[in-house]
Amino acid sequence: MLPSTWAFTGLLAAVLVVCTLGNPFSGTKYYVNPSFQAEIDSSIRTCTDPVVNATLKQMRNVASAYWVDVMAKIQGNTTKTVSGILADAASKRPPELVVFIVYDLPNRDCHAKVGAPSTFPVSRPSAAALGT
């Protein structure tokens, strides 16, 4: 089987599962990060516009993905790190679903031309090492 056939077969299997069993995430509680809530609370305290303030109060309890763009956000005990978020979400009953966005992954996103140059350092082989 060719790799593109494998990908198609996997996609077809995933579609069949969702169509047959329904949405696997239906009824799942998504994680609301307390660190994000604290940032919203700070904005609520300083906001003078009642419409914006009401929107912020609604946003406070909406789950959001956690943006992982530097290695420093991976290890740690706070809800500002992947490890801390996973531990906090796992402590909930039932455990809550966490969504991460991994940005600037090594050897990916190479044409974006954005982000800090040393966010996730990648060793690049020299032309001599590549035989070019």
Structure description:
The chain has one domain. Helices cover 42% and strands 5% of the residues. It contains five helices and two strands, in the order αααβαβα. A two-stranded parallel ribbon has the order 1-2. Helix 4 links the parallel strand 1 and strand 2. The C terminus is likely disordered.
Globular, elongated, flat, extended or rod-shaped: what is the shape? globular
Give the number of domains: 1
Query: How far from one another are the termini?
Result: 33 Å
Rg, Cα atoms, Å: 21 Å
- Biggest beta sheet summary: 2 strands, parallel
| Beta-strand percent range | under 5%
Output the strand order for the largest sheet: 1-2
Give a quick summary of the entry.
The chain is mostly helical and 132 residues long. It has helices at residues 3-21, 34-46, 50-59, 82-91, 127-130; strands at 66-68, 100-102. Strand 1 (66-68), helix 4 and strand 2 (100-102) form a beta-alpha-beta unit.
Give descriptors for this structure:
mainly alpha, 132 residues, 5% strand, 5 helices, two-stranded parallel sheet
List the helices and strands and how they pair.
Layout (H helix, E strand, L loop, with lengths): L2 H19 L12 H13 L3 H10 L6 E3 L13 H10 L8 E3 L24 H4 L2
Parallel strand pairs: 1-2
Helix pairs in contact: 2-3
